[in-house]
Amino acid sequence: MKKLRGIGTAGLTLVELIISMAILAVIGTAIGGAMYVSSRSYTRGASEINVQEEAQVASNLICDWIIDATSVNPDGSGSYLSGSYDYLEIIHPEGDMLVKVLVQMGTGADSDKLIYTATDASDPTNVLGTGILASNVEGCSFFTTFGDDRNVKISMDFNVNDRTYRAVTDSSSRSHDFISTGGTSTVLAPSIRFGLVSNVGGTHVTLEPG
Fold first, then answer.
1. Which residues contact 202 (CB under 8 A, 6 or more apart)?
2. What's the pTM value of the predicted model, to 2 decimals?
3. Residue 103, strand partner residues
4. Pick from 172, 159, 184, 11: which is nearest to 90 by CA?
5. Which residue from 45, 42, 58 is spatially nearest to 135, judged by alpha carbons?
6. Is the pLDDT of residue 189 over 50?
7. Distances in Å between the alpha carbon of 143 and those of 39, 150, 174?
């Protein structure tokens, strides 16, 4: 050993080795902790972004149905009741067919999901489609003043990472039934109408507000 050290080849003593291992352990623990925190933050952020995207997609789809709706019945009676409800029945045209879409919370294993069921409005036994609009849903409500201004407010609560997020969207129908029936609806009178000469056809034209 003395001969080797004499020619410049040095080794580590036991104390130096223990100190080196302790330093490496501290550094490794710090790096591992930082990586864990970073990974967890990324996972939480990704799941929250997914919920936001899901909320946006669900809101957009419901808004599309409401925009084309000829009827929005929160209690299924067709009475255009105003108020807040936990489910919504929307009737809108698709081609030559009137489609009834029921939006509500699922049950059982789907109790945390917002689901929809689409049927033929003239034949409720003819189911056109069902599906999940969004997951991780803690609750939803629909506040409608459709009979007055054709508006429905959609509110959905999402739970992710032990946090609750609320997504709120407003949508209004552009094809209220008084337009398609020439102003004969008892729900809402047309805002503007004017007479037409008989050789043009019809008795009046209804214009939407604005």
1. 182, 196
2. 0.61
3. 88, 116
4. 172
5. 58
6. no
7. 40, 11, 18
pLDDT reading at 64 higher than 70: yes
* H or E stretch at 170: strand 163-172
Q: How confident is the model at residue 116 (pLDDT cuts 50, 70, 90)?
A: very high
Q: How far apart are CA 45 and CA 22, in angstroms?
A: 35
In sequence order, the β-bridge partners of residue 134 are 114
Which pair of structure tokens corresponds to residue 53?
């995207």
Burial (CB count <10 Å: 0-12, 13-18, 19+), residue 101: buried
Whether residue 9 has pLDDT greater than 70: no
| DSSP assignment letter at 135 | S
Average pLDDT over residues 8-13: 65
Helix extents (H) in the chain = 2-6, 14-67, 146-149, 177-180
3-state secondary structure 24-44: HHHHHHHHHHHHHHHHHHHHH
CA angle 168, 174, 180 (to 5 degrees): 145
Cα–Cα distance, 59 to 97 (Å, whole number): 23
- Closest by CA position to 138, among listed 103, 114, 115, 161: 114
Report the number of secondary-structure helices (H) and strands (E) in the chain: 4, 11
